[in-house]
Design a protein that fits this description.
By secondary structure, the chain is mainly alpha-helical. Helix content is 43%, strand content 9%. The chain has helices spanning 12-22, 48-51, 66-77, 83-89, 97-110; strands at residues 34-36, 38-39, 43-44, 56-58. The strands form two sheets. The chain has a two-stranded parallel sheet with strand order 1-4.
């Protein structure tokens, strides 16, 4: 990309899609190992993270907070946190305080 001065505003998933498409015979479907959890203002969380665990938790709303907190915790302690700590930090078990407050403020402004 650098050699060809290729610039995109579509993000990392677009780039990954291009590479995966060019490597069709070598890229396998990861669906059995990945599950998406929506933990922001739109909340759609299954309990499969605990009942039928997957290897990769895709949590788009946690890019700015939850994932960074997990990384800081890993760097501080030098080990991966327990599953329960990960679930809690990524707001799989409950809504974040930030999300709750944002929704309450939004409702109050509508009134």
């Amino acid at each position: 990309m650098r050699r060809r001065d290729f610039v995109t505003t579509h993000g990392d998933e677009f780039i990954v899609s291009l590479v995966a498409d060019s490597l069709k015979t070598r890229v396998k479907n990861a669906a059995p190992y990945v599950f998406r959890f929506w933990t922001g203002t739109f909340r759609l969380v299954s309990t499969c993270y605990a009942v039928n665990p997957v290897h990769v938790l895709h949590v788009p709303a946690e890019k700015e907070y939850g994932m960074l907190r997990l990384y800081d915790r890993y760097m501080r302690h030098g080990r991966v946190p327990s599953r329960r700590a990960v679930w809690r930090t990524l707001h799989l078990t409950h809504r974040s305080l930030r999300t709750c407050l944002a929704q309450m403020i939004k409702k109050l402004r509508k009134q």
